[in-house]
Specification:
It is built from 12 helices and 16 strands. By secondary structure, the chain is α/β, with parallel strands linked by helices. Strand 14 and strand 15 form a beta hairpin. The N terminus is likely disordered. Bound molecules: 2-deoxy-6-O-sulfo-2-(sulfoamino)-alpha-D-glucopyranose and calcium ion (CA).
Length: 524
């Protein structure tokens, strides 16, 4: 039998040869270097503000995520990583295909993803990678390009999730975040073992349901925040003045739209008897006190909003802690297997999230909280750790970047750009010719939370948003359309639209022109 070193060498030589045969030399993997493994960890709705390596823009920390922070310390943290459509399925499809929603076709969560289109898992698989996905999928169709999978059905519950595998449905008992972590750890072990045998690299996606609504914690995290208050964002009591009427049309406020399940006044329906007992033991006394305070009028008005905020954010952050512990388990397993050096680890979320900013939960908007998403990448063999980057990157760039890092050829249809070369060369200033504006488009007006359809452009300093269905007079979601323009330098919280300010007509016209170019480029 040939030695493992020989097998790795010949596979690397094969990959390098086929990349240059295709006429596009990828990132200069040293001829003797084995292609990297990938561990892609994606959570669902993880606000970058709730990753302590990021924190709130004012520098305060809402929570601690020591394991994700460890990744940031040892890797590169992207501070301006945006999605192209801040909602689950569309963003996941963009990560997979490198395309805007208009091209990958999955514009709203109500659609079904066409898995026959080129995607990074399929391309890596063709290049000899062993691939697997475990956890949330949420694309309607079955995973394509994966040798193995075990995915939640639709959104999936926080407890006792039924999951789908190539062999059919499997029931699970326990806490979904922990189950997904365990599946990730098990896959790491078996893929690494197989790789020892045949020299094939692997790509494993570990995709959490948490901290998606309805933020149901594990009992070990119930009391994490007991006796402390979580800092409020400055815009918790936003009155939406100073902007177009668009922001008043949504139904995602902490004040009026959290329901009994969200506030834990009702338990998750899927709990078994033992789980339910633990749940009730914690929540029932809190609920009793809450109901009494509301009924007696002791808790009302802004105080009630603040109290709902605390309840919501504490549950949300408890769910984040389970995800962070899962990241720790994965990193420990990578260390234990001794494969850390040449394994790329990514931590990201399908979009950002409102932790009370503008009085909201949920996502969908082109405002920074949901448009931006956490993105951290570690690869000890090739990336110097502990750095941050301001590169205006987007989820559509992930597939091209990864394909290049794996020595493959990026299909022309991908809208995204690879930042692979720049990353391995030190990730300093933006690479020459890199985009100086990013495009965004959200389609789901008729979906949950009634956020009106919009698209827009963001540059280093400016953001221009167009709402085609909003009436500028605020009479309802059927108007001739209206604009919002923000100066991100003087107004980082995006509270004062300058769209109607004559002094900003020049910059608005310039941005409108550039927006038209981007719409054409991305087929929107
Ligand atoms: C569900 C949630 C919504 C959420 C969407 C989309 N309601 O409908 O609050 O905006 O998913 O989320 S819930 O009652 O099921 O929690 S996404 O992450 O899948 O895009
Ligand atoms: Ca999501």
């Amino acid at each position: 039998m040939r030695s493992r070193a020989f097998r790795v060498l010949s596979l690397a030589a094969m990959l390098t040869a086929s990349a240059s045969a295709l006429g596009r030399p990828a990132v200069d993997l040293k001829p003797s270097a084995a292609p990297p493994n990938l561990v892609f960890i994606m959570s669902d709705d993880h606000a970058w503000q709730a990753v302590s390596a990021y924190g709130r823009p004012d520098g305060t920390r809402v929570n601690r995520t020591p394991q994700i922070d460890r990744l940031a310390r040892e890797g590169v943290r992207f501070d301006r990583f945006f999605v192209e459509n801040a909602i689950c399925g569309p963003s996941r499809a963009a990560f997979l295909t490198g395309c805007f929603s208009a091209r990958h076709g999955f514009r709203t969560n109500q659609q079904t993803f066409d898995g026959s289109q080129p995607s990074w898992p399929g391309i890596l698989q063709e290049r000899g990678y062993r691939t697997g996905v475990f956890g949330k999928w949420h694309l309607g169709s079955d995973p394509v390009g994966f040798d193995d999978y075990c995915v939640l059905i639709g959104q999936g519950p926080y407890y006792n999730p039924p999951m789908k595998t190539p062999g059919g449905r499997v029931r699970h008992h326990g806490y979904t975040t922990d189950i997904i972590t365990e599946k990730g750890v098990a896959a790491l072990r078996s893929f690494a073992e197989a790789s020892e045998e045949d020299g094939r690299p692997f790509a494993i996606c570990i995709q959490h349901k948490a901290p998606h609504r309805r933020w149901d914690p594990h009992p070990r995290h119930f009391r994490l925040w007991e006796g402390t208050d979580i800092a409020e964002p400055a815009t918790l009591l936003d009155d939406y003045s100073g902007r177009s009427p668009a922001s008043t049309l949504q139904t995602m406020t902490i004040a009026r739209h959290l329901d009994e399940r969200d506030l834990k006044l009702k338990p998750p329906p899927e709990l078994d008897e033992t789980q339910r007992a633990a749940w009730d033991a914690y929540y029932e006394p809190i609920n009793r006190a809450y109901r009494e305070a509301v009924a007696s009028g002791a808790l009302s008005g802004d105080d009630l909003v603040r109290s709902k905020y605390q309840r919501y954010v504490k549950d949300y952050l408890a769910c984040v802690t389970a995800v962070d512990e899962g990241v720790g388990a994965i990193l420990d397993e990578i260390d234990r297997l001794g494969i850390g050096e040449n394994t790329i680890v990514v931590y990201t979320s399908d979009q950002g999230w409102y932790l009370g900013e503008h009085g909201w939960y949920d996502k969908r908007w082109m405002y920074e909280e949901s448009f931006r998403t956490p993105f951290i990448i570690r690869w000890p063999a090739r990336l110097e750790g502990g750095r941050t980057s301001d590169l205006m990157a987007q989820n559509i760039d992930f597939a091209p970047t990864l394909i290049e890092l794996a020595g493959g050829e990026v299909p022309d249809r991908m809208h995204g750009e690879s930042f692979a070369d720049w990353l391995v060369q030190g990730a300093g200033e933006s690479p020459k010719g890199w985009r100086d504006s990013v495009y965004y488009r959200y389609y789901e007006s008729k979906g949950p939370h009634t956020v009106p359809m919009h698209d827009g452009i963001r540059t280093d300093r400016w953001k221009l948003i167009w709402y085609p269905e909003v009436d500028p007079d605020g009479d309802g979601p059927a108007g001739p359309g209206c604009w919002e323009l923000f100066d991100l330098e003087s107004d980082p919280d995006e509270l004062r639209s300058l769209a109607d300010d004559p002094a900003h007509a020049g910059i608005k016209a310039e941005l409108e022109k550039e927006l038209a170019v981007l719409r054409t480029r991305y087929g929107a």
